[in-house]
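The freezer alarm interrupted the setup, so I double-checked each line after restarting. Inputs confirmed:
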Amino acid sequence: MTAPLPEVASRKYDLTFARWVRDNVEGGDKMNMCMQCGTCSGSCPIGPEMDNGPRKTFMMVRAGMREEVLSSSTLWNCTSCYRCTVRCPRGIKVTAIIQGLAQVAAKEGYAPKGENASFANAFWWSASTFGKTDERLVPTLYYFSAGFMEGIRKSLDNLKIAINMLKAGRMHIGMPHTIKDKKGLKAILAKAAEIEKAKG
Amino acid sequence: MTEKKTFTYYPGCSSQGSGRHLDESIRAVMPELGIGMVDIEDWNCCGASVGQIGGGPLSNLALTGRNMAQAEKQGNKDVITGCAACYLNTHGGNEKIKADEQKKADINEALGAAGLSYNGELQVHHAMEVLVNEVGMDNIADRAKANPLKGLKVAGWVGCQTVRPFAGTDSGGNYDTYEDPDFLDDITEACGAEAVAYDSKTNCCGGSVAVMKPEKTLHLMEKILNSAKQAGADVISTPCPLCQTNLEMYQDSINKKFGTDYNFPVVFPTQLMAVAFGMEAKKDAGLHRQTIRAEKLEKMAKK
Ligand code: SF4
Ligand code: SF4
Ligand code: SF4
Ligand code: SF4
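Predicted 3D structure, all chains:
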């Protein structure tokens, strides 16, 4: 006779995080449809740069692994190529969910320095200050967000590219382009931030 | 030409920088095809794909809200943009505002701070979608009789964001398929050039990750260049300004990393059209803005 199976302490999944994602992240309401087929991760062009990829991320959300999900490199390497979204057999908005989680991670302070989140902040600074994105200032700010020497190194790496772009008239010297009604835009964004904050 | 239809044009930030030649060639060819364009008055950046991370979702949506409010005041119901990222954000944002009364109310409350409002009556289109569905290939081919690009081999690189984000939605551009769309090759052929078959047509170059951390995505771009070269293409044509800039500016780094010797021109379909329409190489096609010159195409230009 075979020995009886050992008792295994059952692990209870904490669904609080999964429910929160369902209610607060765009596309999260359909995440419970995920059948873990792996089409998304298998289609992802940048999979090797991701620790978990979308499929595993979704399982981790279900398993309540809040810390691991929010500090995962998956969120910062997504190129928004939408390959996963068009291929998901369950019609889940995979890209939107990954981006939504990235945004939560940035807000909660999980985003690593010198990654997409720094770029996003630099970008937002330019967009909200000038009403336009300055393609020179955003990368520069971003490069320096990773530290002074890193900033110098990256800027030099890109010097040749910058010179070529200047010559082609695709980069300009001088003040950033701005919109006329900067004051109006500022008021709109301040109001939007206020509404957003009031909702928590 | 068919009856003239006018769109309100959203140029996007890249139109004043890295994507100037896209903007210039769109402005040149659209009126030739009966499409009028009037810029959104004092438009602002749409926030691109990272705006919601940097600014939060509602503030990010307010950027699109302001553009829509400005455009609505100008009267035309249809908005056109040439940048894939602008389209993704502006079309996506506009649909979000239209679909959700609460969001619309919030956006309008924010817009009110600058005396603006948006009723949600606009429809945002991508320039490629307008060429496919509004203009039609026959009309492009007809106009391209002026200077057909005979003998030019073109690898049409669709990239990601022009077709995939709104796949399967009512306003997703109605491209034939999302895995292997034909529209870019159709434009090439309408211009009298030859569309080569190759296997990286809808591959991703790494997008904004390529801008920030090129070392992570150089192999993706190398694959696109390699398969276009294998297919015998003279030039790559892509509708997306970020694709164009990425693939052009990283060729040096790619050569260094992979020991290759690419010097491959990457242009926009609207630049091909401008040349095929017999328009000016510089003023209309913006060919002087290539950092890797498209020599064969330049030689074909009539002016
Ligand atoms: S493709 Fe869709 S169903 Fe399959 S694992 Fe990914 S999200 Fe889940
Ligand atoms: S959208 Fe992001 S997660 Fe999805 S396949 Fe592309 S890179 Fe991967
Ligand atoms: S997506 Fe890019 S080009 Fe389009 S408006 Fe925003 S920053 Fe500018
Ligand atoms: S190919 Fe690259 S730049 Fe073009 S849409 Fe995809 S990610 Fe964006």
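Quick read of the result. The longest helix of chain B spans residues 57-73.
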